[in-house]
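Hi,

Apologies if this is the wrong queue. I'm a grad student, and the batch job for ATP-dependent DNA helicase RecG from Chitinophaga eiseniae produced an output file that my downstream script rejects. I'm not sure whether the problem is my script or the file. Here is the sequence I used:
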Amino acid sequence: MGMMREKKEIGQGGNIFLLIQICLPEYGICRNGKRYFRGLSGIVMPEQQNIEYKTSWRDEHLKWICGFANAQGGRIFIGLDDSGAVVGVEDYRKLMDEIPNKTVNHLGLVNLRQREHHYYIEIVVPVSTVPIAYHGVYHYRSGSTKQELKGIALQNLLLKKIGKKWEELPVEGATLDDFDRETIDTFLRKARAKERIPEDAVILDTKTLLQKLELATSEGEFTHAALLLFGKSLGRVSITASFKIGRFGKSNHDLLFHDMIETNIFSMADSVLELLKRKYLIRPISYEGMQRLEPLEYPEMALREAICNAIIHRDYSSTYTFLRVFDDRLHLWNPGNLPEELQIDALKENHSSYPRNRNIANVFYKAGYIESWGRGINKIVEACVEAGLPEPRMVEEQGGFSIVFYKDRYSREFISSLQLDEKLEKAMFYIKDQGNITNFQYQQLVGVSKRTASRDLQLLVERALIQKVGTTGKGTVYTFCYKQ
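Support response: The file is valid. Your script probably expects a header line. Output copied below for reference.
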């Protein structure tokens, strides 16, 4: 079906161009009597980070336009329900006049383009080069939700829009006396050993070295990143840049004792790990032949990688980093969500590195603490699996990023995360409590026949979650399988 196109522009200037078009539904499929349109890719598009469906227009949708403009841009469809079905817009001609005027008056969005004789409205919102506010309030599209920006979050948006980051801002009045040369020399030795700095770098004076590491402005002022990395006092930059560690009982409310690491962040990873090994974690003793083995409860390499990631990628304009040690798990949380380019599921796949603090990450890379290939999470997962532990749980929560290490591969939380059939989950919890289960016990537990019990238990064996001990008969039991 052909389309007539008509372009119309609104006169006053602005910093962002809004494309609004009336569209004829290019129906893709029919479900339950509803028509669904096809996107540019030829398939039905669900709501996602840069797409929003609205059945009708309300002025509060200007907040969504504002949120898209401040984030990565996006499209708003008026006349589609949440599933992508076209419900139509009766007053589309009236809206084609009203929406542009409201966006100009409230947001400064200009430049109208229009397609005639179609049934739903598409509003295409590009990324704004400056912050956009609606009635004095700044909105931001994050994931599939919109949020109002205040305080630190608003500060970070304003910095982003002018091409700056918090780590790059100068610290007023900072001098060379604020730096710990011993830490700088440690960095130089490690970076030279990795051959990631030239040989003559070790003789550079402090100011020249910091300038070469982009830790000083063109005017010679030292940045937040410089003082965080090599400063004598974190308080000179941020009182919340410290690293808090706590030992807990069974709940978050049962704090037994705690410590705070207040060194500069280049020394912080080593300090945190040393304190963990000395005070918070135990070393189970085992033997391999005559050799005595004392590994940590969790793989040391995985802990180091996670601690470095928390230090490097956290939002230093926010609150503390917290490490909570429980009997059965270790929970590390740092302020600052993942970059918009990454989702949780993508962390375990091949992905690029998007450091929040580029200059801080560069120093850690040169010292050999991290690699620049975005493989940190993969290394953590692989180390835990090799140690016979479950994969750590990673989640964005409370404005930050969490990674939880589990001591027992078969913790109750881990069993729940397997998303097993209810009967199989009951079997796993039974083994957790009793140590093993027989075919007959499983029959009694979930009310199934012997044949069904054998089939169900075999499913868990095939997933390497349990193992069969014995051959046949009453002496056969099923226990947890600790081999991957």
